[in-house]
Amino acid sequence: MEFESWRRWLLFASIFFTVFGITAAVAPHSSLFELWTSAMDRTFFEGVISPQARAMRGFLMGPLGGTIAGSYLMQTFIVAVPFKRREPWAWHALLWPMLLWFCVDSIISAFHGAYFNIYLINLVPLMIFGIPLLATRSKIIAA
């Protein structure tokens, strides 16, 4: 694919994950998250979660979802303007924070035996954003 096609992919994916973060914050018990919450419950609560733990998870998803939404909204603006101009810093501003998040989140998930989080949550954005970033590297870094 051409640079502009990859850029549009990154733009729409960034917007999608912004909405995903908002959804996680305001509807943490939605059926959209059933696969993840079921895996969470099996891993940490032997499949039976107390009302207090469910309430705490609902609360924690607020700040987490807000953080997800905020970071992807910032990424949306980076993709929309400086990345489109092929400014090298914009490519780096997309890649390195994602790799840092992926490593920290995956290491902590593995440490706690929450491998499901790596498979269900971490690998998806790594591929969705990593492939276009690799594909556009030479178009931006060499430009």
User: Can you write the helix and strand succession as a string?
Assistant: HHHHH
The count of strands amounts to: 0
Note the main sheet: none
CA radius of gyration is 17 Å
Write down the overall geometry.
Answer: elongated
Number of helices: 5
Classify the secondary structure makeup into a structural class.
Answer: mainly alpha
| Beta strand % | under 5%
Distance between the termini: 17 Å
* Oligomer class: single chain
What is the percent of helical residues?
over 70%
Mean pLDDT: 96
Number of domains: 1
Uncertain segments: none
Could you describe the 3D structure shown?
The protein is an all-alpha fold. It is 82% helix and 0% strand. Helix 1 (3-26) packs antiparallel against helix 3 (51-80) and helix 4 (88-111) packs antiparallel against helix 5. The longest helix is centred in the middle third of the chain and has 30 residues, at 51-80. It is elongated and about 55 Å long. The two termini are 17 Å apart.
Output the keywords.
143 residues, 5 helices
Summarize it.
With 143 residues, the protein is an all-alpha fold. It has helices at residues 3-26, 34-45, 51-80, 88-111, 115-141.
